[in-house]
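Hi P.,

Sorry for the delay on this. The queue was packed all week, but I finally got your sequence through. Input first:
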Amino acid sequence: MLLRSLSHEFSVMANLMTVLSQRTVRERVALSLLILHKKYTSNAMEDKVYITLSRANLASMVGTANETLARILHDFREDRLIAMEGRKIQIMDVEKLSHIANL
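Then the structure:
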């Protein structure tokens, strides 16, 4: 059972690496935010869903530099796709982020 679970996790990670390596940084940020939003939504007890993650961790997850991530998040905020309050990110427009992520 453990071996099967580890095999599945490895397969998921390999697929994610393949998908992310073929996308632009902007697409990867949008996709990562959507994935995190879905994960946080399933655990949320309230209407507003906040993604609480440091910029360094998100940049590492996306595979980019902190500065690049900061610029993209700034652009997303100006386009009103997200709202930010400190380390909290709230998705404001899932549809437009999905379009950016090419989903």
